[in-house]
Amino acid sequence: MNEAHPMSETTTGPLFKTRVLDAWVDYNGHMNDAEYARVFSLAVEALMERIGLDEAGRAEHGYTIYTLETHLCYRQEAHRGEALTVNLTLLDSDAKRLHVFFTLRNADGDTLATSEQMLMGIDVASGRPAPFPEPVATAVESLPRAGDEWPSGAGRRIGIRREGNAE
Q: Quick check: helix, strand or coil at residue 136?
């Protein structure tokens, strides 16, 4: 059993919580890198529930969310049985896209990983991008937003930093 729980008490508290399952621990004795991606994927599902796109909402609206891009940064190891929470910050949105930043923390509040993602709203019948249904768009407005101050890990570029001009 996953023991994962979407959180719905407030938009400022954790979006999702779980524990590091035995099956997620690798030969290095900590959570395997792929399992961090799993936790963030489960957080997207919790986000979908929060904005009204749970199973019933997807059926009612004929609408879903696809992940277009993700940037996962590993900060610290997560260990067997460790309690995990995921918080959400909405960096930006438009009529059919969400640019989100998830922060994975342990019970001590230490940041274990972050995942910046671009999500797209999809009309299920056409399989094409489409604007959020009105109730979903309204729910998106209640998500915690970054404002002018983005989280420090957001908008990062991947690459090897070099001193001076490397030609």
A: helix
Which are the contacts of 6, defined by CB distance < 8 A and separation ≥ 6? Answer: 15, 16, 45, 46, 49, 50
pLDDT digits (tens, 9 = 90+) for 18-40: 999 999 999 999 999 999 999 99
45, burial (CB in 10 Å: exposed 0-12, middle 13-18, buried 19+): middle
The two three-digit tokens of residue 66, written as one number? 């696809």
**Contacts of range 104-109, beta carbons closer than 8 Å, 24 or more positions apart:** 104/36, 104/39, 104/40, 104/78, 106/76, 106/78, 106/82, 107/82, 107/83
| Domains of the chain, CATH where assigned | 5-141 (3.10.129.10)
